[in-house]
Amino acid sequence: MTPLELQDMLVAEMEKLFYDWLYKNPNYNPNDPESQERIPLQIFSQHIPTTSANSEADPVPYIIVRLSSGDDSGAGDSNNVVNVVIIAGIWDDNEAAQGHRDVLNIIQKVYQRFSENPSLNDKAAFTGEFHWAAQEDNYFPFYFGACQISFNIPALRREDKYA
Fold first, then answer.
1. Helical residues (DSSP H) of 21-135, grouped into ranges
2. Which end of the chain is least crowded, N or C, by CB within 10 Å?
3. Which domains occur in the chain, in start order?
4. What proportion of the chain, given as a percentage, has pLDDT over 70?
5. pLDDT tens readout for residues 107-160
């Protein structure tokens, strides 16, 4: 298994985990019957896709599954550690400014998922190491937060006669 395969599996897991969670749509137009007041999270791999300069569509609400780093100790262990950052971004124009609650609920759901069952498709395992952070500055009506989660994936080993 490679870190990219882990990332693809995590994107699919996030899609399953949040399939019915709905958030405010920054592009909602009550005069447009095609627009919706609440929409599901978009799940992106590594980055938000680039859009044309003419695009007015805002990508929020979203989750980004970003590979951040990895480690092979070289000690002959059977695992590599891959660190992944999961970034949540939402839009909420309510003047009570409580959008951070949605972001923290997303982070909690990810933590709960892997704390209760550390296995990801029987191919990767949550190490138990989990860190999170919420935005400190005010970007109203946008709210952001992230968590770093680490996984063990199978390591490659030498196969020559000196291994």
1. 99-116
2. C
3. 3-154 (3.30.70.1700)
4. 92
5. 999 999 999 999 999 999 999 999 999 999 999 999 999 999 999 999 877 676
Query: How many Å apart are CA 163 and CA 157, to the nearest integer?
Result: 8
Q: Per the structure block, which two tokens stand in for 121?
A: 């498709």
SS3 state of residue 162 = coil
Residue 142 token pair: 């946008």
Confidence of residue 51 (pLDDT cuts 50, 70, 90): confident
Q: Which residue has the higher pLDDT, 161 or 152?
A: 152
Closest CA to 90 of 42, 148, 32, 37: 42
**Pair of tokens at residue 144:** 């952001």
pLDDT top residue among 62 and 159? 62
| Beta-carbon contacts of residue 160 (< 8 Å; ≥ 6 apart) | none
Cα angle at 12 between 36 and 20, to 5 degrees?
35
Residues ≥6 apart with Cβ < 8 Å to 143: 89, 90, 91, 92, 99, 100, 102, 103, 135
Residue from 81, 88, 51, 50 nearest 66 by CA: 88
